[in-house]
Amino acid sequence: MPSLQERIERHFELKSLDTSVRTEVIAGITTFLAMSYIVAVNPAILADAGIPPAAAAFATCLVSGLGTIAMGLWARAPLAVAPGMGLNAFFAYTVVQGAGLTWQQALGMVLLSGIVFVVLTLIGVRQALLKALPKELLPAIGAGIGMFLVVIGLSNGGFIRAHEATLVTRGDLTDPPVLLAIATLLFTATLLSRGVRAGLLIGIGAATVVSIPLGMSGSLAQHEGDALDAVLQLDLRGVLAWELVDLILAMVFVDLFDSLGTMVGVIKKAGLDDGEGRVPRLGRMLGVDGASTMAGALAGTSTVTTYIESATGIEAGGRSGLTAVVTGVLFLLSLPIVPLVSTVPSAVAAAALIIIGATTVGLAREIDWDNIDTAVPALFVVAGMPLTYSIADGLAMGLISYSALKILRGRAGEASWLLHVLAAVFIGRYIFFA
Description:
Elements: H1 4-11, H2 21-35, H3 38-46, H4 53-73, E1 81-83, H5 87-98, H6 103-123, H7 125-132, H8 138-156, E2 160-163, E3 167-170, H9 176-193, H10 199-211, H11 245-269, H12 282-299, E4 304-306, H13 310-315, H14 321-333, H15 346-361, H16 372-388, H17 391-408, H18 417-432
Antiparallel strand pairs: 1-4, 2-3
Helix pairs in contact: 2-14, 3-4, 3-15, 4-12, 4-14, 5-6, 6-11, 6-12, 8-15, 8-16, 9-10, 9-15, 11-12, 11-17, 16-17, 17-18
């Protein structure tokens, strides 16, 4: 009878991938350290939607752990999943604060988007959607979400505040919480610049410890509740309305393109593609991603997506699904620290958002700014998301302007017919459900 190690090597095909159990374990730990910040940052964002931080932290660890393990065992890919940055902001600020839905209804929307995601994957529509969305706008979407996170971080950290004449102005930079945010930002950025994998988590932890004697810790504790308060609390019936179609579509699109881009990029980086750009078992990977989103809605967190931080595990030598299994187990082992999340000051979480956003804004360099047909829609996306406080509106403005420019220039055929249909859907939403 084969030993456990032999069975592990056979299931994950370690020999054919030229890797070992030891290398895979180290890679899994590396991936976890690189993305472990989500355990503290996600609850901080979802708290603004009304979800108790302890409940959001529990859901984050549980779903990230189980989803990542499934990615490793079933899809056999060295990829990790967790509630997505940007998608959690969409949940809190666009769906709840912007559209006026309750967080229970927003969770219902997450479940619905997950179902749509899986159905599109099963029937192959995702390929049509991929072709429909202009490739020129993909970096703009990432950069726009990054700017959105930066603006949220600057606002929550007290760096900026509302102003009647100029819309926004500088905050009080001598205020203690703002000083804490500045110190956290500089310390964490220094760690990351030195190549410290867990720099973001260390920065959040260190700043939280410093905040205790200063009397600034526990700003998230004002949201009462325990770890199970968001489990099975979703309200699906409350989001079955036509006026919410654009929000659901935006949630599906952002998750779909974010996940696909990450999967293809990381798998190619690992040299696991078929040599012609195709990714083996991509359907399984997307299936796990969509199923994790549905599980997240049931557990009490926002949309789950595949994390680009999976690339850090690849750099450490990870090549198989065992890397993902190790990362997932570490997320599950993080469940006991859930109560500590409420001690993180909002100023510290704000600094983390600014750093995360800054690493994403750089995608703007990939935009062809010299081509006006690309530059205008891209600008609508990049500027529209933070200025309207809505990922959905930024995406809609980009698609509408791209479609309109093609039509007005007599080049409608250069864009997919599905893109023009999507643009019409968004226009209809603004006209009939303003």
